[in-house]
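ESCALATION

Customer reports they have been waiting on this structure for their group meeting. Please prioritize. Original submission:
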Amino acid sequence: MRVVKEAEERRNEILDAADELFGQKGFDGTSTNDILEKVGIARGTLYHHFKSKEDIMDALIARYNVRLLGAAQEIALDKSIPVVERMIRVVMALNLSGESSNEIMEHIHKPQNALMHQKIQRVIVNGVTPILTEIIREGIEQGLFSTPYPYECVEMIVIYANTVLDDDIVQMTNEERVLRIQALVFNIERLLGAETGSLMSVMKMFGGGNGGSHE
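Update from on-call: job pushed to the front of the queue and completed.
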């Protein structure tokens, strides 16, 4: 008997199969036939939901987007949390911590998934920047920060953190990473016009301690 499934359920089955196959064989190494065989569907069914293999990847990234940014957005909207603490919590959420997020990052950092990695980076930059910018604007209103360029400052910070602190871009020891993060926090304070040392508590997220003085 032919099994007829709801469109959303079938779509998710295709995405789950592609996600697993991309992890095993990479995006380039996975064919649409591989996906068809794994899900057990006809080619017409696949193309009813997705125009191409890249369309499947884009849908996967959109699904990652919800997982990666959803928690951060929820934190950002919680006005009961002080601004600096909320910034830290948002960054912690975006630090891709947790089992599912670690799995995502391990998956997209594989060399064969370079295109997926690039697209995820774009999602992070475009998604994180407006979330953090709204918090920065609140901080400006409260006198914690002073900058006429809140969005641009956050964009610079996110792009740096998303590239230099990415193990695929710059290989570094733990000690070198701590120094990079110390320098980043030091410069974030200046970019945002924050009081020196006011954001250094962010170092606790990365196990960097107080980081010493850079006066």
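Sent to customer with the following note: Residues 1-50 form a domain with the Arc Repressor Mutant, subunit A fold (CATH 1.10.10.60).
Escalation resolved.
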